[in-house]
Design brief:
Elements lengths: L1 E5 L4 H14 L4 E6 L2 H9 L7 E3 L4 H8 L3 H12 L7 H7 L8 H21 L4 E4 L4 H13 L2 E8 L5 E5 L7 E2 L8 H13 L5 H5 L9 H12 L12 H21 L11 E5 L6 H4 L8 H10 L6 E5 L10 H8 L4 E4 L5 H7 L2 E4 L4 H7 L4 E3 L11 E3 L3 H8 L2 H7 L4 H13 L2 E2 L14 H15 L1
Parallel strand pairs: 1-2, 1-4, 2-3, 4-5, 8-9, 8-11, 9-10, 11-12, 12-13
Antiparallel strand pairs: 5-6, 6-7, 6-14
Helix pairs in contact: 1-20, 3-6, 4-6, 6-7, 8-19
Length: 466
């Protein structure tokens, strides 16, 4: 079998170690799709031959050459002809990408056409049968959509934020349809009891703590800045990575935004007499919002509309993600503070007591929705996730639906029954289709590349590649 990995920042190190382990016990041939000249060079230095790497970097020089080529109009016509048959429009794919949406529209559109042309031919010419990736940037999403027409299996790998270090293979770009390669059946009662126990004990997934740190100035920033300047040429043409000056600006703004939030914003705590819904702000940019819930991905505008749809006696309390402090700009915070009936809670406040005292929890795709639903609390969700069929979760598709719900919140809470049996079956399906192991990068979690984890994760991949 010919298998392909997508290079994805520092996670490339993890997937390369996984490839080396898989090669020991299989006769498969492994290929790579790489958007970064830096990571392509790293793979070459690691012993991957150039013929096994597809370079999809896109410089201005490549752009000008591509749009003048005779293939350009033919590729455009071909992709436009199938656009209505795929799940996402080309515009949607561009707008969900944290970097691509910043470029000029002609360049972004040409990049999509260029990547489509390259990966389609690469998969065909090398008889690629299976592809593994995440869905962090546009090229990965486009690959999933292209694979469907080529009859190639493309698996979106994602760490699950359910109790335990587990991950799953998803069949589509969205984290909704979990692939079960081995049809195993677990103990549904044991899975349910384990999850409930972990939630009651406020157990957090391992990655939560590995990312739990506030932005603070460090002398290492100066060293990193000069390293960025030195390495800047290695990112030339990488449409998934920000330039050195933008990265430096983001770092600086993180400090200012954190200072502003901690020193210029009055935090509130709900009073015992308050009737309120609890909105959990999600980190952004993030595929779980920008891709899975694109129409609701602007969280500031979403909160304005939640306020518009709420009765005046229902308060909206907002809690920011502790791992994302500083990502929200001061201007965005000021805009939030002007929204009627909206109050910001200290991000360090323990969540469970807030959840239990609220009328409902509102989230786009956050796994706090899973936690709240399992704790018998009404959850209002705007996006698609693998747990959104839990009995206490209501999916919202329009603001008319939201207004009808919020104006009858007491009635809806009473009528939305907690179905233990249905939830137990769904949770068992999730656990049965999940594998032990950490899917991460060594910068976020160094344990992901230790031999024990690589061994555990490789066992899961064998179910697909063998």
């Amino acid at each position: 079998m010919n298998v392909c990995f997508f290079s994805n920042f520092d996670k490339t190190i993890f997937f390369r170690k996984l490839q080396v382990r898989l090669e020991k016990d299989s006769r498969n041939t492994y290929y790579w799709v790489c958007s970064s000249p830096k990571w392509k060079q790293w793979l070459l230095e690691e012993g991957v031959k150039d013929k096994f790497i597809l370079d999809i970097s896109f410089t201005n020089k490549k752009y000008l050459k591509f749009i003048k080529s005779p293939e350009f109009e033919l590729i455009k016509e071909e992709l436009y002809s199938i656009e209505s048959k795929i799940n996402l429009s080309i515009n949607y794919i561009i707008l969900m990408d944290r970097n691509l949406r910043r470029y000029k529209r002609d360049f972004s559109t040409a990049y999509i056409l260029y990547v489509y042309y390259l990966i389609k031919n690469f998969y065909k010419e090398n008889n690629i049968e299976t592809i593994f990736s995440e869905v962090t940037h546009a090229a990965e999403v486009l690959s999933i959509e292209t694979s469907f027409f080529l009859g190639v299996s493309h698996y979106n790998i994602s760490q699950l934020a359910i109790p335990g270090n587990k991950f799953s293979f998803f069949k589509t770009f969205a984290n909704t349809e979990i692939f079960n390669p081995h049809k195993k059946v677990n103990d549904s009662i044991a899975n349910y009891d384990y999850a409930i126990s972990a939630l009651i004990n406020k157990t957090k997934p391992k990655y939560y703590f590995s990312q739990l740190k506030q932005p603070r100035f460090s002398g290492l920033w100066i060293k990193k800045f000069f390293n960025y300047l030195i390495d800047n040429s290695s990112y030339n043409g990488d449409c998934t990575e920000s330039g050195v000056w933008l990265r430096t600006l983001k770092k600086t703004l993180l400090l200012w935004n954190t200072f502003f939030l901690n020193n210029c914003v009055r935090f509130y705590s709900p009073l015992p007499t308050d009737s309120y819904v609890l909105y959990f702000w999600q980190r952004q940019p993030e595929a779980t919002i920008d891709l899975f819930a694109g129409l609701f991905s602007n969280q500031v505008e979403l909160l304005k509309n939640i306020s518009r749809c709420s009765p005046c006696n229902l308060k909206i309390f907002v809690k920011f993600h502790p791992n994302g402090v500083g990502e929200l700009s001061s201007s965005q915070i000021i805009t939030l503070l002007r929204i009627p009936n909206l109050y910001i809670i200290n991000y360090n406040t323990e969540s469970h007591s807030l959840i239990m005292k609220s009328k409902a929890v509102i989230t786009i795709t956050g796994t706090v929705g899973f936690e709240a639903a399992m704790l018998n609390k009404l959850v209002i969700m705007f996006g698609d996730m693998y747990f959104d069929k839990l009995s206490k979760i209501i999916k919202i598709n329009s603001y008319t639906e939201l207004k009808n719900l919020l104006f009858k919140i007491e009635q809806v809470c009473a009528e939305t029954a907690y179905n233990v049996e249905e939830d137990r079956l769904l949770l068992n399906e999730i656990y049965s289709n999940a594998f032990d192991g950490i899917i991460s990068d060594p910068k976020t979690d160094i344990d992901c590349i230790n031999n024990n984890n690589i061994e555990i994760v490789s066992n899961a991949f064998y179910y697909i590649v063998e």
